[in-house]
Design brief:
Elements: E1 2-5, E2 11-15, H1 23-46, H2 52-73, E3 76-82, E4 86-93, E5 96-103, E6 108-112, E7 122-127, E8 130-134, H3 140-152, E9 156-160
Parallel strand pairs: 6-9
Antiparallel strand pairs: 1-2, 2-3, 3-4, 4-5, 6-7, 7-8
Helix pairs in contact: 1-2
Length: 170
């Protein structure tokens, strides 16, 4: 998701992955699946197939781990600040974990076109030898929206086509 934030000294964007459900919603879904799985496992164990109980437990543990990792990954965010002098990109989860500053006058946005039409373009902020990926978690619409906003702001856009040796599916 691309969200423009108010800032008195420049242009600031907040980039986050799309989150379809909150943490509480994820826990509710897991609890509902736990109840259904517990009922089914209890029924089978009463019928004499008690071996299903450990496998149902393992299944629920694996599901909880998957939900936790996915939810944690969706907490990533990037803040892009563009002023007259520089471009600052901050990345992190719950707090700033990395920061890059590039001169606005010489920086450019590299747009690597995807080899397949159903995947978004890969974006990099570049200046000399420094290349920083930006918005790797954005979908196609959000990537296009970000490119348009940065182009309106006057950032130089450098488009790169995919390697022609790449086949249809790779």
């Amino acid at each position: 998701m691309v969200e423009r934030l108010p800032h008195p000294d420049g242009f600031r964007l907040l980039l986050t992955p799309n989150r379809s459900l909150s943490w509480q919603g994820n826990v509710r879904i897991w609890a509902a699946l736990f109840i259904v799985s517990a009922l089914i496992a209890t029924g089978f164990s009463l019928a004499g197939a008690w071996v299903i109980i450990p496998f149902a437990g393992l299944e629920l543990i694996a599901l909880a781990c998957g939900i936790h990792l996915t939810s944690r990954s969706c907490q990533r965010q990037e803040v892009l600040f563009i002023s007259n002098d520089d471009i600052r990109l901050e990345k992190g989860r719950k707090r700033k974990q990395a920061e890059w500053t590039l001169p606005a006058r010489y920086a450019r946005l590299q747009v690597h076109s995807p080899p397949h039409p159903f995947t978004p373009a890969k974006l990099c902020l570049a200046h000399r030898d420094t290349q920083v990926s930006i918005g790797g978690f954005l979908n196609i619409e959000d990537t296009d929206k970000l490119i348009g906003m940065l182009e309106q702001k006057g950032l130089l856009i450098e488009r790169k086509e995919p390697d022609p040796k790449i086949g249809l599916w790779f």
